[in-house]
Design brief:
The chain is of the alpha+beta class. 24% of the residues lie in helices and 32% in strands.
Amino acid sequence: MSAHPDAAALFDAAAAELRETAFRTDIVVREIPSPAGLAPFSLALAADVRPDDHGDSVYGTGRFVLLHDPDEPDAWGGAWRIVAFAQAPLEPEIGTDPLLADVAWSWLVDALESRDAGYHSASGTSTKMLSKGFGALAAEGDGAQIELRASWTPDAPLRPHVEAWAELVGMLAGLPPGSEDVAVFGARRGARG
C-alpha cells in the first residue's frame, strides 16, 4: 500500500481541472506524453499559436508540465510543481533589446498575478537568441528568438496557472490579451534561433 493512498485521486482531480480549461481560439492546446522520471504523477500540455493545417506554428509554441510528488521534494517546497516553456520568433531588431529577457519574465509574473495564481519557489531563465545565415541559408537573413523556461510551486487552484502560461505563450508570440482574430505582425517563417 502506498504511503499516500489518496495521491492518485488528488492528481486525477487536478489533471481533470486542467483538461477542462478553455483557451483562446488562436492558441491550440493538446495533451502530450509527460517526461519520465520527474515525479510519480505528471501531465504535459503543448500549445501552438495559430498553427497551420499541419499543426506547425510560425508564431510561437509552449509546453506546460504539472508534476505531483506526495513526498514533497525539498526543492519544490510542496507536493506540486509546474514546469513551463514558451518560445517565439522575433524580428532581429527586437531581439537586440537589452531588456527583452526581463520583459519576458515579467509577463509570466504579471500573468500569474492577474489571475491570483499564488506560487512560491519560482526559478527560470529567459533567453534571447540571434542568428545569421550563411551559405545556402544566407537568403533567409537574420533571425531572433525569445525563450522562457520557468518552474514554480503553485497554490491551489491550478487552473489559473495553466491560463497564465497560455497567456504568456500568446504574449511572446505577439498576441496581447483579447486579440483573437487580430492580425499578428512580425512572424518570421524560417526564423532561426
